[in-house]
Write a structure and sequence with these properties.
Chain B: Homodimer. Chain B: Belongs to the UlaA family. Chain B: It is a multi-pass membrane protein. The complex is a heterodimer of chains A (128) and B (427). Chain A contains 5 helices and no strands. Chain A is globular and about 60 Å long. Chain A has one domain: Serine Threonine Protein Phosphatase 5, Tetratricopeptide repeat (Alpha Horseshoe), CATH 1.25.40. Chain A starts with a helix and ends with a helix. Chain A is mostly helical. Helix content of chain B is 74%, strand content 4%. Chain B has 14 helices and 6 strands. Chain B is globular.
């Protein structure tokens, strides 16, 4: 049993290390895209904003991910990853708020989901 | 005693007040500030009264339509509209109080079932719950249930649908979204599963719809009011021509009979507009209050969201599903009367939302070919089920209309085919 425990500890430590490395790599990428965003023309911003949303999502920094995805959708209401990731993100934040007993935040994220749903309908109509 | 009598007989029998009180309770439970509680309750009452006004407009227009259709074609033409069913049940059948309380009961049963069973779904599409409450109340009452029994039976059946439908759809929703965190809360799910079944059988190895390039310009068809008008205006005008000038003028008075038919069709659209504004006002306060409570009681719940939640995953499939479902409803319109069923006119609103969502389901399992064949079958299916309800609606006094949304129709048929005979045994 002790042997298994040691093995699991080793495994945990290894995966923690991998996580660290991954996070470092993600941070570097985020820095890179943030500087790209600073220098980008208005019309080139959308893919950068989406990338930042996606990278922050991977980093599990959900608030920043939401901020960049929302900015992207504000500028261009094309259906895609920004929409689908935002649904997931709002739900995660709603769940967190629900567990923490924060009624206000639960309502905020439910309302955001509702708004996104409305936007989805309108976008489909515009695209048809 | 006199005061209690007054409260029971004169205040609580007024549905608009009961509904406002339900919102009041929900907002209080949410511990909202007093001002918000009062304004929310008042807006809810206002919403109910607006809904009633919309219903009267729709009924007026449908009565006219029924007359010219019978004269012109010698048969019934039925407009599928769950909004009209809801309005007539609340206004003309005097079931508004029961519908409001059943609506509340469905919420409570949904929370209980999500808490106690492994179906952790909280149904958040308020409008769909209102339609479900309408159908279970109408058919529960027709089956002989009344009072608290009616409300509990409707609440239980509706509550089971609220957790079961997202659960049934979840394997395909998971395939579409790649996540198990969110679910679909839309009472057309039986149709989606039927369509997906056909698509799976017929669409093996077919390419995804997302590789098709659709021409733009169908957007106007998916606009809520315009799409209703696109069906209703030609229908009323052509029917009035078939009914003839002599008969038409009897109804239209000084106005030209064709112009009158056109205006009556637009009047129907106005009715839908007013009624839906009322529903929105009514639900805007109640739903946020109760869903907040629900998600607090069941924090690990999966929220079952309205169908547009799936639209971004396959936008082309939405368009394709809408078109193929519409074709199916048009075919069914002509075919069903051969079998002695009523002629059900295509409901463009349902075709867009249910057809579009079915398109995503069908594409996920059967690609392009699946959407084409499955979509036509879906259109046929969602016309057939409401057609089966028409004789029952007629006997209950509904005017030239039938329900849409196949899950609510199924709930109605469940009461009619199962609970009604059982009640008769004990009567």
């Amino acid at each position: 049993m002790l042997f298994f425990k040691r093995k699991r500890k080793e495994k945990d430590a290894k995966s923690e290390m991998q996580q660290e490395v991954k996070k470092e790599h993600l941070s570097e990428q985020i820095e890179e895209y943030l500087s790209k965003l600073e220098n980008a023309e208005k019309e080139d911003e959308i893919p950068i904003l989406n990338m930042l949303g996606s990278l922050y999502f991977e980093m599990e920094d959900y608030d920043h991910a939401i901020t960049y995805y929302e900015k992207s959708i504000d500028q261009n209401k094309a259906l895609g990853k920004a929409f689908t990731d935002l649904v997931k993100l709002y739900n995660m934040k709603r769940k967190e708020a629900s567990k923490a007993g924060d009624r206000e935040a639960v309502q905020v994220y439910l309302q955001k989901s509702d708004d996104l749903m409305k936007l989805t309908k309108d976008t489909i109509r515009g695209n048809m | 005693m006199a005061v209690i009598d007054f409260i029971i007989n004169s205040i609580l029998t007024q549905a608009s007040i009961t509904i406002a009180l339900i919102a009041f309770a929900g907002l209080l439970l949410q511990r909202k500030p007093f001002g918000e509680v009062m304004s929310g309750s008042f807006k809810t009452m206002l919403g109910f009264l607006v809904l009633s006004a919309g219903s009267s407009i729709i009924v007026g227009s449908l009565l006219y339509f029924g007359d010219i259709f019978s004269e012109g074609f010698g048969m019934e033409g039925i407009v599928p509209s769950i909004e009209a069913i809801n309005g007539q049940a609340m206004n003309d059948l005097g079931l508004a109080n029961q519908i409001a309380l059943t609506f509340l009961a469905i919420f409570i049963f949904n929370i209980l079932l999500a808490r106690l069973t492994r179906w952790k779904y909280i149904f958040l599409t308020g409008q769909a719950l209102l339609w479900m409450a309408t159908m279970t109340t109408v058919f529960g009452s027709a089956a002989g249930l009344s009072g608290i029994g009616l409300i509990l039976a409707g609440g239980l059946v509706g509550g089971i649908f609220a957790v079961a439908m997202p659960a049934i759809a979840q394997p395909i929703v998971k395939k579409i979204t790649g996540t198990d965190d969110i679910a679909l809360g839309h009472f057309c799910t039986i149709g989606y599963m039927f369509a997906a079944g056909i698509a799976k059988m017929t669409g093996k190895n077919s390419d995804s719809t997302e590789n098709i390039k659709f021409p733009k310009g169908l957007g106007f068809l998916s606009d809520t009011y315009l799409s209703v008008a696109i069906v209703m205006v030609p229908l009323y005008v052509v029917t009035s021509i078939f009914a003839g000038a002599e008969f038409g003028t009897e109804l239209s008075g000084d106005v030209n009979y064709i112009v009158y038919a056109f205006l009556q069709a637009v009047q129907f659209v106005v009715g839908v507009y007013v009624l839906l504004s009322g529903v929105r006002l009514l639900l805007a306060e109640i739903v946020p209050a109760f869903r907040g409570i629900a998600l607090k009681v069941v924090p690990d719940a999966k929220p079952a969201l309205d169908c547009p939640v799936l639209f971004p995953y396959a936008p082309n499939a939405v368009t394709a599903g809408f078109i193929t479902t519409t074709i199916g409803t048009v075919i069914a319109m002509f075919v069903l009367p051969w079998f002695g069923l009523a002629m059900i006119l295509p409901g463009m609103l349902t075709n867009f939302f249910a057809g579009g969502t079915a398109g995503i389901f069908m594409n996920a399992v059967g690609g392009k070919r699946g959407v084409l064949i499955g979509g036509i079958a879906h259109g046929f299916f969602i016309t057939l089920l409401p057609a089966l309800l028409v004789p029952h609606f007629n006997s209950l006094g509904f005017v030239n209309t039938t329900a849409t949304d196949v899950d609510t129709v199924t709930a109605g048929l469940l009461f009619e085919w199962l609970i009604h005979p059982i009640m008769n045994l004990f009567a």
